[in-house]
Amino acid sequence: MAEIRNYTLNFGPQHPAAHGVLRLVLEMDGEVIERADPHVGLLHRATEKLAEHKTFLQSVPYMDRLDYVSMMCNEHAYVMAVERLLGIEVPIRAQYIRVMFDELTRLLNHLLWLGTHGLDIGAMTIFLYTFREREDLFDMYEAVSGARMHASYYRPGGVYRDLPERMPQYTPNRFKGEADVKRLNENRQGSLLDFIEDFTDRFPVYVDEYETLLTDNRIWKQRTVDIAVVSPERAKALGLTGPMLRGSGVVWDLRKMRPYEVYDRMDFEIPVGRNGDCYDRYLVRMEEMRQANRIVRQCVDWLRKNPGPVIVDNHKVAPPPRADMKNNMEELIHHFKLFTEGMHVPEGEVYAAVEHPKGEFGIYLVSDGANKPYRMKIRPAGFTHMAATDELVRGHMLADVTAVIGTIDVVFGDIDR
Amino acid sequence: MPLTPEALLSRLQETLGESIVASRIALGELTVEVAAENWLQVARQLRDEPSLAFDTFTDLCGMDYSAYRDGQWEGKRFAVVMHVRSVAKNHLLRVRAFCEDDALPLMASVVDVWPAANWFEREAFDLYGIVFEGHPDLRRILTDYGFIGHPFRKDFPLSGHVEMRYDPELRRVVYQPVSIDPREVTPRIVREENYGGVE
């Protein structure tokens, strides 16, 4: 009789399906996992400590680098926390712009999740499809902020600037000829809003394409159905949020339950799963993309009709317009003080949470009245999900670990901070 | 509709009664402070009492108050702050407790009440050195293997104590004392009340 031994397997930190720097120590009985011990922190950059040494404005770009596939949602939670402590009201147009970009960010995040989740468990094509659409979304980011990923577009008090009137266009170069450029620029003739509207018209068809590839795909179902089942009670106890919680059939969405910005004016629905397995979570996220597209469309329609300011007029918080700063002594002083000393936030503490594409993303901010936060705690969406991995993979086969890592939509920027 | 913070506070006072040391409602959020010895019992009550039903756990973090308002803080140094949420009733509550001993901060673990607290407590232990009694697996989580110190304490420098480099002679990665000087680009300023006559 052959001797039977348990194996300890080191999954990562360089494993391509580990989505970054996850080291997962698996105790295996043959091919069945008995225990999983995730070692996180390999991407720890002490963002919270850094924030204690930066002015409130200087921390905004750090937020992009937390969950680096849903940049603007991270910024949103942070600026909301600062705004609540300051007690300022954001102009309504800025609120619509934020909601629109939050939902575009949700698409950006879910598209990356879909592509890589597919890639991990054997569906190569989907990756090529989703990255096609991500390119358009990055162009929207770039048009509005100048950066494709790390936008720092949301600022305490509003957003950095209004939406551009003209969508940037491609120019011919040695890689792209006249004919290509003409085709690429077809839907870039108008403003950014025209481009986004055109995208929202196209996008439902794209989601149908993804669903054709996966939803009834036999292999896809074999890899996801009944994998990592979580009951609603257990999901709540484990602190799961977002699609992970809704996949188990719990109706919970901060956008509906605790509406922030103008989500209470939006018409959208919350999809929930029934079985709490990987397949249901997949379906929930697919439907979320359709709903996000609906919200974007509503914002586009509103933004077309309602011009207005996009950042508060309080120059203790937001910089004065550039032209005024050049011509007016008082505005120059405001500008100088804001960008050197920064704003003083009244003493107090606040917890601001947003419905991030991955779940609840919150910022707990404590100020002692200085120009820097006394303490900033980031409540990352993926942290509790990663902590639940052990329970999710227990009793499954080794190959299911990649399915679980895919389904919790893990990104180490925010888990490790 | 979620309860107002005032209504939530009165419900808490009915249930927790004497356990609440202090409470504060600000910016639409309710904060209650409890004594460290009641921490676990309060957590149980928050979860099990049907009128409260805090069924999910949002966040837990350590706090170091030693540099608060540039060292004007009088009181215990370390605190644990947790945010708990009720999905069923749509409440959010912040609970804070100060650790009795500044030299060895101790707090009861709430992992038995909410399993989600597990990693958050490991994090608070790692970054602040707060020891959670009854935690099943209190290891460091975010810092490097073999890290020394608790980096988020206010007396730990931002640039740290050691840096890492590859030593071509030893042909391995070595630690050495940091070679960069800490610098502060923007000084931290706490304005006195009504500075310059501004409200």
Beta strand % of chain A: 5-15%
| Main β sheet profile of chain B | 5 strands, mixed
**How many strands in all of chain B?**
9
The overall strand count of chain A is: 8
**What is the number of helical segments of chain B per DSSP (H or I, 4+ residues)?**
3
Largest sheet data of chain A: 3 strands, antiparallel
Assembly classification: heterodimer
Secondary-structure-based class of chain A equals mainly alpha
Query: What is the terminal separation of chain B in angstroms?
Result: 35 Å
Q: How confident overall, as mean pLDDT of chain B?
A: 86
Radius of gyration of chain A: 23 Å
Which of globular, elongated, flat, extended, rod-shaped describes the shape of chain A? globular
Helical segment tally of chain A? 18
Instruction: Name the shape of chain B in a single word.
Output: globular
- Fraction of helical residues of chain A: 40-55%
Low-confidence stretches of chain B: none
Which strand-content bin applies to the residues of chain B? 25-35%
Structural class of chain B: alpha/beta
Question: How are the strands of the largest sheet of chain B arranged?
Answer: 1-2-5-4-3
Q: Greatest interface and its residue counts?
A: A-B, 54 and 43 residues
Radius of gyration of chain B: 20 Å
